[in-house]
Amino acid sequence: AAEKPSVDIVGDWQHRYCSLADTFQPVLDRVHNFEVREDDVWIVTSTKCGTTWTQEMTWLILNNFDFEKAKTDDLTIRSPFLEFNGVVPNVPHDTIEALNKLPSPRLIKSHLPAWLLPKQVWTKKPKIIYVFRNPKDAAISYFHHWRGMVGYKGTKEDFMHSYIDGHVNFNPFWPHVLDFWQLRDEPQIFFTSYERMKRDLGGVIKDVCKFLEREVEPEQLTQLVDHLSFDKMKDNPACNHVKEFESMKAAAGREVEEFSRFVRRGIVGSHKDEMPQTAIQEFDDWTEDNLKDYQLTMDDFINYS
Ligand code: A3P
C-alpha cells in the first residue's frame, strides 16, 4: 500500500497506478520497507531519461572524483538499481541486500514513481535527483531497449501506443514527472532534464555539487565533462551496461541489432528521424492533454534550471 509523503503531491496519492512486469513484483514489499539513510542520494527517473549518465556524474561527485575506481568498478555495483532484483538472467543480484551492505553515502537508482518509493524516503528525506526527458525521445530509446534487451517483437507503432497508454514498465510517464515537478522546490529535490545536461553539462555538474554540498575544482570539472561525453561513456564498459545487455540477449538467443547498445545515440530529438509522423502527433496531443490543467508545456521541463 502506498503512503502519502509528508509533502504535497499532485492528485490522489492513493489512486495512482504503475505498470510493472511480474519480475518486479516480488520485490515490492521489500522496497516499501527498505531502510533509507538520511545521507543517501537517489537518482529517480522515468526510463531512458539519462539515468545512467546522471548516476555516473553523481557517483564521481560523491566520491571525490575517483576516476580510477569509476573505471574499474561497475556502475551497477557502485550505484545499485533498487527494484532490479534478480531481473537479469545469469546475473543473480540481490540489489536490496547489496544496498544494505553498501557504505554511506549510497547512490541509489530507481525508476519507481514517487508514491512507490520506500516509505522512509519521505520521512528521512534523502536527496533525490530527478531527470526529465522529452518522452518522444525517451519512448524511442525505450523501444530499442525493449527490442534489444527484453526481446520485444511488436512494431514501433504498437510500442508507441503502449507507451502513451502507460502499459510499459514504470509508466504512466506524465504522473511520474508531475509528482516530482510539484516537489521541485523542496530542499530534498533537484529537478533537471536530459536536454539541460546536453546543453550545459558543466552547469548541471556545478548545481549538483551545490545541491550535494561538494566542492569541484576547475580541473575536476573539465575532467568530469570529458569522462561523461557520449563517446567516452559509449566505450566505457564500467558504465555502458554492455554486460547486462549481452547477457540478456544471450539468454534469449538473439542477434545484436543495429542501435541496440544501451548508450545508443545520445542526442536530443532522436524521435525526429525515428518516430512515425502519426505517433509524433499522438504524443503531442497526449502531452497537451496531460499538461493543460497545470498550465505547463514541454519546454517548462526541458528548460528548467
Ligand atoms: P538514446 O537511446 O536516445 O541514445 P537511461 O540510462 O535512463 O536508460 O538512458 C539511456 C539514454 O541515455 C540513451 O539514449 C543513451 O544513449 C543516453 N546516454 C547515456 N550516456 C549518455 C551520454 N554520456 N551522453 C548523452 N546521452 C547518453
UniProtKB/TrEMBL annotation:
Entry keywords, A to Z: Transferase
InterPro entries: P-loop_NTPase, Sulfotransferase_dom
SUPFAM superfamilies xrefs: P-loop containing nucleoside triphosphate hydrolases
Residue ranges occupied by any Sulfotransferase domain in the UniProt entry: 39-294
Protein family (similarity comment): Belongs to the sulfotransferase 1 family.
Protein name (database record): Sulfotransferase 1 family member D1 isoform X1
